[in-house]
Design goal:
483 residues; alpha/beta; 9 helices; 26% helix
Length: 483
Amino acid sequence: METDELTEPERRVWEAFPRGEEVVLPADGERTVRARVLRALLLRAPAEEGEIPALRLRGARITGDFDLRSGVVTAPVALADCVFERTVLLHGAELRQLTLRGCRMPQLWATTLRVDGVLRLNDCRITGPVRLGGARIGGALFLDRAVLGPLPNAGDRPPQEARAVLRLDHATIGEDLRASGLTVHGQARLDGLAVTGLIRFADARFLQPGGTALQADSVSVGTNLCARRLHAEGRVNLRGATVPGQLDFTGARLTHPGGVALRASSCTVGELWMRDTRITAGVVNLRRTRCETLAAEPGVWPQQVRLDGLVYTTLAPTLPAAERLEVLGRDGDGYVPFAYEQLTAAYRHIGDDAAARTVQLAKQRRHRTTLPLYGRLWGHLQDATVGYGFRPMRAAGWLAGLLLLGTLAFGLHPPRPLKADEAPGFNAFAYALDLLLPIIDFGQEKAYAPQGWYQWLAYLLIVAGWVLATTFVAGVNRAVSRP
């Protein structure tokens, strides 16, 4: 391109490029720069001896397609507060470093883009799709305070059929993904994204009511995923995510009426933080997820959860078992034995055996509701007598009460001896104890025979003794056999 074909703003850019100087175009002056001029400049990359060429431009109105598809650009590119009239095309391009700070554009198509250094899109306003699928970014990706979407005519189709506004699926980022304050009107798709450092979505907003707002299936993070104060309207899907550090939803606000608000199933996480998280509508699905620490108060959970297979070592904060048990009752799968076993293990991990027994007792009571009538009746009997073995002192109380009843009754009306000349002296206490304890024989029961309603009392003591003994042994055996 001949320099005599350039406009005044374009000439300034052309002359500043070899020295890497910034060109600032005044808001009240001529600001138009043709995209093909910038393309020719970047691909030609003129340089001056002893200088580092770079495109640094602020406040331009760029006309035409900014087309660098499959191009190789060796000079850094930094455009600030520029307005692109047409789509920015970077498919398969290779750049050293790219900064588009505070720019406005209709679309950004940059699948399989290669950037050796940092890609900055801070404060950008992009009304159409942003395609970065398969991109390879050696440094960090910045999307702080960017506003993306909504797509044209996105409201004319069902949410599940709408195209994604942001696509970072199967991209690789060598450092961090920083997107604090990002707003996405539509779906953000991050499936298979690999980030060596951290992902930061603090104060971000993902808005896709009735559909999936954040689709991040099998995302891999090197350290932490920070979603503090994140606001999502629509499903947040993190199924299969790997986060060795913190997955932090502190202060987040999630809603997806009639669906799953947060799906973080089959994840591997170091610490899952959900303090002060508010899920106003929707289900939380944490099935098969594994984490060392689960920090969540009972109040953060919605009316329905799915926790089967959730494994954790420590629960924070430390609360009475009754408060945690109420959450297990909300499981949409009904009675989930594993959830009770996991909660028991967490309390035993901190040495709170009393809370662990409380959880096990609650598990048996919940299981009882799934049994047929005879099973429920037997369960009620075990619960009332020995608390399924987790309240063994109840059996002692029942035995003491029945022993007192038998001693008083037979002490006032001693039974007749079967053989008067051979019967030992009658002892009301020993006789009642002989009836109650099936494996103990004091010789009283065999020597005396009560009559009338006292005979029925003797039968009652014998049956009660057998029931208390068997339920006590079964319950204690169940408690002792726990790991």
